[in-house]
């Protein structure tokens, strides 16, 4: 049987290049074949449509509009898709590519023909909130606030150029953005975390290339009676028990930390979750992971392996 043919549409962008890099070993062992287009054909709609209809699985690493156009060009019913853009994340008929999100989600990804990769920030927010909301420990209408700091690679090629190009000396050391409170990740977080109200989401970039530290504060007085940090932690630990790529820090380990390093898991597909608390009824949920790993390219490769029956 021929090795599966994978087409990365947008393989010269940050996400596409890293997917290619992560698949290199499998390509070298000939367990995968990679279909690429020459530089002069990458914006040729006809050539791209021919390529996407000739592959077994297409991975779309494109801007949203181009991803929608690419998906619409598929006429071969055997072609399966992983969309790394945000174009289809809340679109009916697409399977959300966060295998650890809920029971059976990995199997749904494995069987799907259309998979939409999670956003980088939503991976952390949904990873923390989803199990707690489904367990009834966090109310569905809780006034959720999320703050996250990402490496500048999360801003794509333009941000990388700003921090690594000829004008890098003028790049801001830290910037909070999305001040209009209309970030495109908010509906995605609301839907898959199971919230009835739009979360307050405030993102930021730091002057480092990759890695995310995301936090969600909770007030115990707004939760059900008897819910405390230990119960929240136990719920998360139980949900992710045995998970290959998501680890919940023991409460004792969390209490010994004085800071979070957003770059701690760079180069991996892992995510570490934590629960911190004080004596004043306040809890902080945390997630640390690589925005180009579990938040993008690593997640796409994990989903690809599931779809190929290799994970």
Spans where pLDDT lies below 50 across 5 or more residues: none
**Mean of the pLDDT scores?**
94
- How many distinct domains? 2
Order of helices and strands: EHEHEHEEHEHEHEHEEHEHEEH
How would you sum up this structure, described in words?
It is found in: Cytoplasm. This protein is globular. The longest helix is centred in the first third of the chain and has 15 residues, at 14-28. It has ten helices and 13 strands. It folds into two domains: 5-118 and 296-307, Rossmann fold, CATH 3.40.50; 120-291, Dihydrodipicolinate Reductase, domain 2, CATH 3.30.360. It has helices at 14-28, 45-54, 64-72, 105-111, 120-134, 156-164, 185-193, 229-239, 251-255, 293-307; strands at residues 5-9, 33-35, 57-60, 80-83, 95-96, 114-116, 145-151, 174-176, 200-206, 212-219, 246-248, 271-277, 282-289. The two termini are 19 Å apart. Helix 1 (14-28) crosses helix 10 (293-307) and helix 4 (105-111) crosses helix 10 (293-307).
Features:
globular, 311 residues, NAD(P)-bd_dom_sf, 34% helix, alpha/beta, 7-stranded mixed beta sheet, Rossmann fold, 10 helices
Outline the fold blueprint:
Layout: E1 5-9, H1 14-28, E2 33-35, H2 45-54, E3 57-60, H3 64-72, E4 80-83, E5 95-96, H4 105-111, E6 114-116, H5 120-134, E7 145-151, H6 156-164, E8 174-176, H7 185-193, E9 200-206, E10 212-219, H8 229-239, E11 246-248, H9 251-255, E12 271-277, E13 282-289, H10 293-307
Parallel strand pairs: 1-2, 1-3, 3-4, 4-6, 5-6, 7-9, 11-12
Antiparallel strand pairs: 7-10, 8-9, 10-13, 12-13
């Amino acid at each position: 049987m021929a090795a599966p043919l994978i087409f990365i549409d947008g393989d010269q962008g940050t996400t596409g290049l890293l997917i290619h890099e992560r698949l290199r070993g499998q390509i070298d062992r000939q367990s995968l074949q990679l279909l690429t287009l020459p530089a002069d054909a990458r914006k040729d709609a006809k050539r791209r449509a021919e390529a996407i209809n000739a592959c077994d699985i297409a991975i779309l690493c494109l801007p949203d509009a181009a991803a929608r156009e690419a998906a619409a060009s598929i006429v071969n019913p055997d072609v399966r898709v992983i969309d790394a853009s945000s174009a289809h994340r809340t679109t009916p008929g697409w399977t959300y590519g966060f295998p650890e999100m809920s029971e059976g989600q990995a199997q749904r990804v494995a069987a799907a023909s259309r998979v939409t990769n999670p956003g980088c920030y939503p991976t952390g927010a949904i990873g923390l909130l989803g199990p707690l909301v489904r367990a009834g420990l966090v109310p569905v209408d809780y006034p959720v606030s999320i703050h996250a700091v990402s490496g500048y690679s999360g801003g794509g090629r333009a941000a990388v150029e700003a921090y690594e190009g000829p004008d890098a000396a003028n790049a801001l050391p830290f910037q909070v953005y999305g001040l209009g409170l209309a970030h495109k990740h908010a509906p995605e977080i609301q839907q898959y975390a199971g919230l009835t109200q739009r979360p307050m989401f405030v993102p930021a970039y730091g002057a480092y290339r990759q890695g995310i530290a995301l936090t969600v504060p909770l007030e115990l007085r707004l939760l059900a009676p008897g819910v405390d940090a230990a119960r929240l932690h136990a719920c998360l630990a139980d949900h992710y028990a045995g998970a290959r790529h998501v680890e919940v820090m023991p409460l004792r380990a969390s209490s010994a930390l004085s800071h979070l390093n957003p770059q701690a898991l760079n180069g991996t597909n892992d995510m570490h979750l934590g629960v911190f608390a004080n004596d004043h009824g306040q809890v902080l949920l945390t997630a640390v992971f690589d925005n180009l790993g579990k938040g993008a390219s690593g997640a796409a490769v994990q989903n690809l392996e599931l779809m190929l029956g290799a994970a």
